[in-house]
Amino acid sequence: MFDRAIVHMDLDSFFVSVERLRNTSLEGKPLLIGGISSRGVVASCSYEARRFGVHSAMPMKTALRLCPQAIVMRGDMDEYSKYSRLITDVIREEAPVFEKSSIDEFYLDISGMDRYFGCFKWTKELRQKIIRESGLPISFGLSVNKLVSKIGAGEVKPNGESQVAKGAEREFIAPLSTRKIPGIGKETYKKLSFMGVRQVRTLREVPVRLLEREFGKHGRQLWSKANAIDPSEVIPYTEQKSISKERTFSDDTLDIQFVRHKIMSMVDDLAFELRQKNQMTGVVTIKIRYADFNTYTRQKKIPYTANNKVLVDHLLELFKKLYQRRQLIRLIGVKFGGLVHGSDQLSLFDDTMRDIQLLEQMDHIRERFGTGAIHRASSL
Ligand SMILES: [Mg+2]
Q: How far apart are CA 184 and CA 318, in angstroms?
């Protein structure tokens, strides 16, 4: 493959940074954002809190035991989505090809740029522009592939810039803990540690056959990653990318309750699909076709979410606004666009966790028995 120049850009403790923009007195203090009830979970925490051993996805209770002086705040996805979009717009203006890999992370393919500017200089300037226009701290890593750039950015956070020269990738990741490799989670890390493998350079020495025996097809990927190999491409981000469902009624209908229930069950199916793919939507659309075949749509930008309840509310509200003609409806459609990766936000701001557990149980049943296994009582 031709030499590539791939950038990973990652906002530093994104939610915390947005809160500090709005309230500068939070600067320098340990801050926890997430569910504020006794069963809540930490969605994001400041570096001051991390020093006490707090990390995201930790129960709020545990976090407060480790760091009792921390300030706890409920998150505001509306605000975070606004900043996420602002930064996406800045990157879109400058970068030839970029991927929005989550609400606060981006990959850029700037191959060929070095002939004109020098890739590192170009990326530094883009970083400064993002900081100027958003006021938010951001770090980046630059290398020949996504894997090494992401690890590089992680190593220099917060407020850091990392460049790994071509040919130096293996050497760069060799001394790191295997936990630093994207895709190696808690379980894999534990298992590797048990095998006596803690450093990336040790992982390299394990025969691929042995890794395949222990980790299945994931085994070869582990070996590739340990060798800094990652041919994956930057997938261009488009807000048009979407998932949708439509339903044509066998008889045109005026029964609004019936139509509303159809909307709810389509939203349930699509939201399930989002969660399966670990994605959230930022743009929802409703579509109505009347008996005379005239078709109308209405869309709305919303805070990123994969939560059924939130999505149902938005779609029913759109339907209410769009259904103005009081005529027979022939078809109804629902579309989720502006998809981004990341579903953890789904649960983290929820106070009770009960809704989340219910959703997880429903997803579990759907996974086992298929999407037909669960329906809202009202849509039966
Ligand atoms: Mg981040």
A: 41
